[in-house]
Amino acid sequence: MLDSLAASTADFNPTKSVNGRMLKRLIEAGLTWLHSNQQIVNTLNVFPVPDGDTGTNMVLTMQAAFDEIKHSNETNFGKMAHTVAHGALMGARGNSGVILSQLWRGFARALDNLPVLEAQDFARALAEARDTAYKGVVRPVEGTILTVAKDIAAEAEHIFHTTDDFLQILESVVEAADRSVQNTPALLPVLKEAGVVDAGGKGLYFILEGMLRYLKGQALDIVVGTIQPLSEMVLQNTLETIEPGQDFEVVVDFRPTAAIDLPAFYGMLEQMGTSIQVGEGEGIYRVHIHVPTLNLYAPIDYTRSIGTVTRVAIENLIDQIDGRKSSCVESAPVLTPVEPGQIAVVVVSPGTGISRVFASLGASAIVDGGQTMNPSTQMIAKAFEDLPTDKIIILPNNKNINLAANAAREVSVKEVAVVPSNSVPQGLAAMMRLIPDGNFDNVVSEMKQALEEVQSGEITCATRKVEMNGIQVEEGQIIAILNGKLVYSCPGVEEALLNLLSIAKADQYELITLFYGADILPVEATNIADKVQSHFQSQVIEVQEGCQPHYQFIVSIE
Amino acid sequence: MKISLVTDSTCDLPDNLAERYGIQVVPNLIIIQGKEYQDGKGLSRHEFYQRLPEWDTPPTTATASSGTYQELYEKLLQQGASRIISIHASSLLSGIYNAARTAAQAFHDHVLVIDSGQVSLGLGFQVLEAAEAIGLGVDFERVIELLEKIRERIRVIAMLDTLEYVRRSGRVSRMSAHLGNLLRMKLFLEIKAGQVLRTGEERTRRKGIERLKQQLIQLGPLRRLAILHTNAAEEAHQILEDIDPRLPSSPLVVNVTTVIGAHVGPKGLGFAAMIA
Questions:
Q1: Can you tell me the distance from the alpha carbon of A223 to that of A247, in angstroms, rounded to the nearest whole number?
Q2: pTM (two decimals)
């Protein structure tokens, strides 16, 4: 974008002042640098609405400002600044863009017809920019671009007493902007929660940094490796395909001792391995990389050389792809926090996969248990008492656990309702009706109604010889159970499942969900699901890892 | 005294209605694969939702600039409007309100920018009510009062066919910690007091549509109704047919603005209703 990267000395006196033509170059530099870093700003965006377009909006606004002056040969600084402000206002997009345009408006207003900008003018203009931006917002919020504007104005005010070198002043202002941006999570809880800094503030930082880089003759259009907010890093491996040289997955968290030079940082990592992802939140960087065995410790050694390593995780990918099922022994699912007065759901779950699904739907506590491993009344009651709310619904998810659930309700001092789900599919159907802030009785009655809206199937192995409902079962045979009743028996899992589904008339339903058990490998489950799909072509088939013991499959038909 | 009405394209008012009442609808912008479109222009809504799943970078939306609003206000005032009421999508969900408000500063009391707290026809119905009142000669202050009152009678509910688009838009992530769901489901959202609230989910489309109908019926007699969809016109008309006797006259069926639909994804269904 820039014709020349070196500042022209004709327009710029490095120690004292800046004229209109120089401002034009600085605007272009700020725009270019912001554009190079647009994606970084977009991914930070969580406030007020996390729609990932702050960077885009700010670039469009700056672009409009620059378009307005592109062909101008104005040398008067004040006049040029007014034209910039006009362009920014006309092109302002989104909240961050509008605030940015207000900053330019205030900046220009302070300078009017000033021919050249000097140090004390710069401080005055930044102060006016700050005031105008604050006035332009209905409810100013700290921890945003406004705070950054305030902090840089304060820095400029402070520094111009000690130097009149514009480069030095801009350098201090950029540093102040950086500090201010890093501090935004301390001021705005939603940023802290998301583990990011404010996007608009960061955008303003890039504009200023771009100007500084231009003055220093540094490149502006390099593509910097992206850094994601920590909260957005998804580090699940796709285990189907591991290429040569991806023996281990290494994840390192570290706190850098100095600012990270991203291109150099990425360059080093690229020499070590592949699948590189870098995240950042509250000063902690997270590196994710796949490395060959030879380089196993290289990412750790390297990050130790540039900061303090706080956490390391290594996983053997080769071992995982050999079919080990790591996710069934994984740590506890992420439960939904509940506040006093809200309705909490306690779920009895037979497997970690199923627990994860319930947790994803808003369960606040999980009690392990199911067939042949019924939890005690005390275990259930303890789950009630541990929750910070008094309104609790329990889903037993098994006929044999209903009693214990009822007993726990009786010993509890809290308001507890048992929604008597006899199976996991029933429990899930009920879960869909949870409204944490809803009326307790209404939610309970909605949940009870939902129990009837789904058919539950189970595939398991007969533990003894039996004849039931006219079906002869030998010990060790596979049996199919539909809504609690034995409906089919045969030697193979796949055959039992297909027959279960046709007895349930699954072809008249919309969705079949298969939760495969701890004894079934993911690849087996996928193969069986493919078979089911070929028999039930108009139905949606969904496969979930259930991790339950004893049952090869738990099936929901709805 | 002539009062002019300005809104933006998230209002989803059909062109003929906007024209009949002289309502100025400022198009929002949508950026698809790096190319900027005005909402509904150059690419039909139908085509947009059809092609949405194919685009590898999700479309992003942008408000019209403050400058656009400023120029429009200026033009309307020159053409003889003495007051302008500019009603827009919820300020908690979009920057449109702020862009308009910034533009309005130059005109002091002549332009009043109102945050509708709504989107789609939740906004559109407010604009229509204002237009009808102005047509009847109701004065400026009364129109503003009226707008404040009817806001409570408006309900907007949507059922998303997939979570993919709303998840990457992030527009519900904060109020719903567990949206990283594992299961396939139809999410129900309500726009209330300017915010998107999660009000439940269903696992199948059939049950979801039943629920929408129940929710509509439970509202009682309606003054206005629009069935909203993102390329699910057939089912939208079916819903109207199924609840027929309870309908207000001439309900609308609207393929919603791409600015909202980009976050909803194809095959979404919902409604905007104004209780009688």
A1: 29
A2: 0.65
